[in-house]
From TrEMBL:
Pfam families: Fer4_20, Fer4_7, Pyr_redox_2. This is Glutamate synthase. Coiled coil: none annotated. GO terms for molecular function: iron-sulfur cluster binding; metal ion binding; oxidoreductase activity. SUPFAM superfamilies: 4Fe-4S ferredoxins (SSF54862), alpha-helical ferredoxin (SSF46548), Nucleotide-binding domain (SSF51971). Keywords: Iron, Iron-sulfur, Metal-binding. InterPro entries: 4Fe4S_Fe-S-bd, 4Fe4S_Fe_S_CS, DPD_II, FAD/NAD-bd_sf, FAD/NAD-binding_dom, Helical_ferredxn. It comes from Phenylobacterium hankyongense.
Length: 595
């Protein structure tokens, strides 16, 4: 293998697995260290710079960072990255003075934002300080989009939404709330320099089954029902409730039902438990609240008596797998099962609805009725119209909407300044030694052996009485510190200087996970099998030195390195150093373009 090149932003970024996995590329280890130091406001602002909604996401994020966490490779559970984000939000000081001030003067460009959800709000946050005249449209009376309408208050209090949405709207923009856009042609005719569509995936899928019409009064579309609860239009439900679907919306529906009078609430899913789309912690929360999840049941019909819904009939299925491991559900041969109920909540998926976009306006749509959108620039076939969030590629989650918003803001700024939107300004990076002495570092590199700490919950009997009473109490400062200490500081990179190495193998002897090997060179497939610990995970690189005096090379498996720094402490020549890698995502603005 050739000597590993660490030039450019990607090599060391990929080693920081949590940050690499985060769509918004939040510098996770950096803000966790700040939490451990009690610098909560600094930790909050690092989050705000990249993921925009620290307090909201600290309660609701889908946590793509946590499965990637290196701690999960040496223990059963990763660092509670998401809940530490909330620690920063809950304990920060007043940070309003640290927010960008409204632009002193406008730059003459007008941008319309359709939908006031997380994608549009991110675009607004990035463009407002640059002097753009922004007009934010939404059919609801308050900004927030699905954050406000679809996430139950017992998971996300209204005051947290108001605070973090307010930070953005306070940057200077025109809010046209309660004003739904009915025509893209009409919006284009208003002469905006650019239009961003962040209208979400507002339509829940229905089930066209026998009995649907007869039971209509008590069969509800999940996301619509959650919105009605959030806005106070619905305050009760029947005693017996069936929730159809296995995603996070289904978990929100069943838990909300328990708080609105549902005593016998069941989630019934066509897939197996492990295959459900709901996050594992969402399923755990439902089960904790005494909600059974019944799997491998496919709804066949809604039953009714006297013109009123009486239950749901299910076919019992089982999973079969072909030679390629592909699954299909087949009838098990067991008799159909009938579950009586008073209400049904249908949470079997969401889809986009663009009745307000005329098909002759110049936008290209795909076979599924979705606009064709560039996955990097977020630009549509109409050069001045951009999409993001669920409106771009279908339902995902808040953190993806934020990432789309950042990318779209860069593109809109480039477009409005007459630059090529495909010319993406690079992120800012730095790599700085953490050495403070011969064997001392400017960070705590003692690997804590603590298992993941559980987030305290409100007493179940109390929590189930109030649909607006937050269930999770969050880590206090002491628990937050202890959980932060579990972080392995993966952004502190082990950097090797070939000319200083005397091949004494001291680093090999002290490495606690056997990730360093001095060996003869070879091609990668061969080399991976000759390491002290074989390195089968091809998606993470080997760190390979140049040829050393004996002709050997140093090979480090980045996949299992704990970044403990013992190699650097033991090295007698300083060939190893611990250097902090920082990556700052690209934001709209000429400062980024000049890097």
């Amino acid at each position: 293998m050739q000597r590993t090149s660490t030039e450019g932003p990607d090599y060391f970024h990929k080693v920081v697995d949590c940050q690499w996995a985060c769509p918004a590329h939040t510098p996770v280890p950096e803000y966790i260290r700040l939490i451990a130091e009690g610098r909560y406001s600094d930790a909050y602002m690092i989050n705000w710079d990249s993921n925009v909604f620290p307090g909201i996401l600290g309660r609701t994020c889908d946590r793509p960072c946590e499965p990637a966490c290196r701690r999960g490779r040496v223990e059963d559970e990763p660092v509670a990255i998401c809940r530490l984000k909330r620690v920063a939000a809950d304990n920060k000081d007043d940070i309003t003075a640290r927010l960008p001030p409204p632009a002193a003067r406008k730059n003459g460009k007008r941008v319309a934002l359709v939908g006031a959800g997380p994608a549009s709000l991110t675009v607004a946050r990035d463009l407002a300080p640059l002097g753009y005249e922004l007009v934010l449209y939404d059919g609801d009376a308050k900004a927030g989009g699905m954050i406000r309408s679809q996430i139950p208050r017992f998971r996300l209090p209204e005051e947290v939404i108001d605070e973090e949405v307010g930070y953005i709207t306070g940057l200077g923009m025109e809010l046209r709330l309660g004003q739904r856009i009915d025509s893209l042609k009409g919006l284009l005719a208003e002469g905006y320099d650019a239009i961003f569509v962040g209208s979400g995936a507002p339509r829940g899928r229905d089930l066209d089954l026998p009995g649907r019409e007869e039971g209509r009064a008590n069969i509800h579309i999940g996301i619509d029902w959650l919105s009605s609860v959030s806005f106070g239009h619905i305050g009760k439900i029947g005693r017996r409730v069936i929730v159809l679907g296995g995603g996070n919306t289904a978990m929100d529906c069943c838990r909300t039902s328990r708080r609105l009078g549902g005593e016998d609430v069941k989630v019934i899913v066509r897939s197996g438990f492990e295959e459900m789309k709901a996050s594992s912690w969402e399923k755990e929360d439902a089960i904790h609240e005494d909600i059974p999840i019944i799997n491998f049941r496919v709804p066949k019909a809604f039953t009714h008596e006297g013109g009123r819904l009486s239950g749901v009939l299910f076919e019992v299925v089982e999973a079969q797998y072909d030679d390629q491991g592909r699954r299909r559900l087949v009838a098990s041969g067991a008799p159909d099962e009938h579950y009586p109920c008073d209400d049904v909540l249908v949470a079997v998926g969401q889809e986009n609805a663009f009745p307000w976009i005329e098909r002759d306006v110049g936008l290209t749509f795909d076979e599924w009725g979705m606009p064709v959108v560039d996955t990097v620039t977020m630009q549509s076939s109409l050069p001045n119209v951009f999409f993001g969030g669920d409106a771009a590629f279908g339902p995902k989650n808040i953190i993806w909407a934020v990432a789309h918003g950042h990318d779209a803001a860069v593109s809109i700024d480039q477009f409005c300044q007459g630059l090529d939107v495909a010319d993406r300004p690079p992120p800012g990076t730095s790599l700085v030694s953490q050495k403070m002495g011969i064997h001392e570092w400017s960070y705590d590199n003692d690997v804590a052996n603590d298992r993941r700490y559980r987030v305290p919950l409100r007493d179940k009997a109390t929590a189930l009485k109030d649909v607006r009473l937050e269930v999770e109490l969050g880590f206090d400062r002491e628990l937050g510190f202890r959980e932060a200490q579990r972080c392995l500081n993966c952004d502190i990179q082990t950097v090797f200087a070939d000319p200083l190495c005397i091949e004494c193998d001291a680093c090999v002897d002290i490495c606690p996970v056997d990730c360093i090997t001095f060996t003869d060179n070879g091609d990668e497939e061969d080399l991976r099998t000759r390491l002290k610990a074989p390195a089968p995970h091809l998606d993470q690189a080997l760190y390979v030195s140049g040829s050393l005096p004996t002709g050997r090379v140093m090979v480090k498996d980045e996949d299992v390195c704990l970044h403990c720094g013992l190699c650097a402490e033991r090295c007698p020549t300083g060939a190893w150093d611990m250097q902090k890698f920082m990556l700052e995502i690209t934001h709209a603005g000429h400062a980024c373009q000049s890097r």
